[in-house]
Amino acid sequence: MRPPRPSALSQQSGEMGRPPGPHAVPAPAGTTAAGGTTAAPGLIRDLVAWTPCPPRAHPGPRWALMAAAVAAGALMVSCLLCALCCRCRRRPGRKPRDKEAVGLGSPQSSTTTHLVQPEVDGLESSPGGAQKWGCLQLSLEYDFGSQEIRVGLKQAVDLRARDPSGTADPYARISLSAQAGRRHETKVHRGTLCPVFNETCCFHVPPQELPQTTLRVQVLDSRRFSRHEPLGELCLPLGTVGLQHVLEFWHPLGPPSTPEAEPMGELCVSLRYVPSSGQLTVVVLEARGLNLGPAEPYVKVQLALSQRKWKTRKTSGRKSTADPYFNEAFTFHVPFSQVQSVDLVLAVWARGPRLRAEPMGKVVLGARASGQPLQHWADMLAYARRPITQWHRLRPAREVDEALALQPRLRLPVPGS
Questions:
Q1: How buried is residue 83: exposed, middle or buried, by Cβ count under 10 Å (0-12/13-18/19+)?
Q2: Is the dihedral of CA 287, 289, 294, 300 positive or negative?
Q3: Tens of pLDDT along 327-355?
Q4: Strand pairing partners for 392?
Q5: Distance in angstroms (rounded) separating the CA atoms of residues 133 and 131
Q6: In this predicted model, what pLDDT tens digit does every residue of 253-281 receive, in sequence order?
């Protein structure tokens, strides 16, 4: 006979009395044998600790979760602050800025006239618009004994550049209305809008002519191959200033006047000097704007040493034309020790039915020249062995002769005279 099977109750009681095996799952806290639950204080914490993670998910460290929570909280706080600031700026009942009316004349307005930028057209017509051409510092001194007025040109500031590059090569031209045709030109200053001239010139003016005399100072931009561009002008009647004492003052420049007509024309010359051999090469290229009529122009090149005529050359004549083309070269031997003591004079003459008693215009280059001719001579010495080409304005022959004070050549007496 088989032994009787144990009942289910005995098996269940035996399992309860047996210690749990290695694979046994403990009963969750808060459960009873009857299957009920109790609300223990650490229930949620125990559940989080007991709940297994998915097989493919790897839980991160707790400090990373805390950092993410802090960052999210800071972001939310900053967004709230921004929203509050924007709402405070938009006050109720205030008009937009583009629709707010600005009253310059009403006393209730908080905007004043000097805080509003004027229009560009208003600057052109305003009295202060002359300052945009720059200012000039000069001095005046009149000697009643010699009846000469001494004009000292100190400097200029804030000149207006007419070139697209924003710079200029300024120089000044000084003249008096009582002495037409006589003028003084300063040295050219390269690449600046605030040149320092420090040059002085004298003009002979009787005291009775001072009230009717006007001092004119023109500031021009030097151009090598084109007409010089005016940068500003100063016209000062001498009758409005007291010349009993030495005057030194700043004066604003005005807009330049209409360029003067140059009936004498211009001459294009190339210079080249070799210090080792002492060779000075002068190339007369062309002229333009000559007013000769049916006459045939030619150019006479003259070299003077110590105010005495030394060597003379001349080009061939051209047919009657206002723009003759010569392209003739002349070479002179000038030692380096004498290159600063020579004067190069180029005179335009004409052959025709009516012979001229004097040349129609001259150009002088050398250490005693002024303005553009002096700068041309300095460039020739600075860039030795290199040809330097420039255009020069013809000046009246008498003006050049008086400035140079040239003396005729020494001639031996003729026997029996």
A1: exposed
A2: negative
A3: 999 999 999 999 988 999 999 988 765 55
A4: 267
A5: 5
A6: 988 876 554 457 889 999 999 999 999 99
